[in-house]
Design goal:
single chain; Sortase, Chain: A; 8-stranded mixed barrel; rod-shaped
Length: 309
């Protein structure tokens, strides 16, 4: 059943008159302005008119930023592959040598430099033999005539001239520094394009610098990548031992001083009157060189050859 609710008229006459006007009034003819069709570009221009728009320079900066980002990614990728990747591949591909192969040395006697002896002392020390002692004994037989023994003449042998001994090669072949964890072979490096070569995965001996136990011997190596043989060389302090092997001998050095120099301070490689060892590596983001100077103590045969009589 439909229930109709009666609307209570307003109490006052003003409210009733307003209601009557709203019910019986006619709507006015309101005209709207025509719709304008614009493209997205024009509409965007109109909306963004109060704001500065991007120009060709802004687009150029955007392209430059993207190219720079790509270049940075490529550079660091190449750096990782050429550095840590190469070290990983080298450790994977190169077989680890045994201790006997790494430290194999030729047993050689230690050459001790002595003054040339006096010729008179050499003559006095030679054995003196009487000519009569060299003759054979003849038994005397009284029943037969005695015979005089005449020793036949012997040709004088030609003197034997010993071939000259080749000079020893005192270029270093192995370096051991217990305090810095260095146990590496040594290879010779040269100046190429005005700069010294740096050996990869080994210690480099600078060509024509001092030899083992003589003058100023210069050795250099990487501190970070490519083997990093000198990565802990900054731990050395005065008194630490450095062992250089050359010509089948062990040359011992003691660290005297350490310090940093600039790359153009090449006087640290100059020859010296006293034998010493100079170790070089990069430091401070390759802006300086770490220099370790060690004094020569002495040479001895390696343990494998020292016990051979």
């Amino acid at each position: 059943m439909l229930i109709r609710r009666r609307v209570q008229p307003p109490a006052d006459a003003a409210s009733q008159r307003l209601l009557s006007d709203l019910l019986h009034s006619q709507p006015e003819d309101v005209r709207l302005r025509p719709v304008v069709l614009r493209s997205l570009k024009a509409q965007r221009r109109e909306v963004l008119a109060p704001y500065p728009l991007r120009t060709w320079f802004d687009r150029l900066l955007t392209v430059g930023e993207r190219l720079l980002g790509v270049a940075v990614i490529v550079f660091f990728g190449w750096w990782l592959i050429d550095g840590y990747g190469r070290d990983w591949w080298h450790a994977r591909s190169v077989a680890t040598p045994t201790a006997a192969e790494t430290r194999q040395m030729v047993a050689a006697p230690v050459a001790i430099a002595t003054a040339e002896p006096d010729a008179t002392l050499l003559g006095a020390s030679l054995p003196v033999v009487d000519e009569r002692w060299s003759r054979p004994k003849v038994a005397v037989d009284y029943l037969t005539p005695a015979r005089i023994y005449v020793q036949p003449l012997q040709p004088t042998p030609a003197p034997v001239v010993a071939p000259p001994q080749p000079p020893r090669d005192l270029r270093p072949t192995h370096l051991t520094i217990a305090a810095a964890g260095v146990d590496s072979t040594v290879v010779e490096v040269f100046v190429q394009d005005g700069a010294w070569q740096v050996a990869d995965y080994a210690v480099g001996y600078h060509h024509q610098t001092g030899l083992a136990g003589r003058s100023n011997m210069v050795l250099a190596g990487h501190k970070g990548l490519r083997g990093g043989v000198f990565r802990h060389i900054d731990r050395l302090k005065p008194g630490d031992a450095v062992i250089v092997e050359a010509a089948g001998e062990r040359f011992e050095y003691r660290v005297r001083t350490t310090g940093n120099v600039w790359p153009n301070q090449i006087d640290v490689m100059f020859p010296t009157e006293q034998p010493q060892l100079t170790l070089l590596t990069c430091t401070n983001w390759d802006t300086q060189r770490l220099v370790v100077v060690a004094d020569f103590i002495g040479a001895a045969a390696p343990p494998a050859a020292a016990g051979v009589n």
